[in-house]
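Chain particulars:
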Amino acid sequence: MNYWLIKSEPNTYSWDDLVKLGKDHWDGVRNYQARNNLKAMKLGDLAFFYHSVNEKCVIGIAECVREFYPDPTTDDDRWVVVDFVPKQKLKKSVTLEEIKAMTSLADMVLVKNSRLSVQPVTREEFDIIITMSETV
């Protein structure tokens, strides 16, 4: 199993939107590195759902339930989507500020390249953030 982080502006598409729909495709990716990350996702992979811009926090966990296929929002065949379902909302959101404060997360892609909308997360990073989310 692999781990990922997917980012969205909450006023455009939020965790609550995914929960409401129950399942949805992750579309609109127009960055080659992010697209390649979508192509690398496998069934059962888990992704942190990250609210970007104003909130800047990990809010939930989504599961990949369909591997990449052509993005239905464009006729350009370079772009792909994957399908996600909401797995669970974190007990407590984990902010970018909290993540940056953890020396054990200093090499996380979110810290080093925060603009990338779809990014890999190591198992260790995933576990650390889960632990942080359980500390109220």
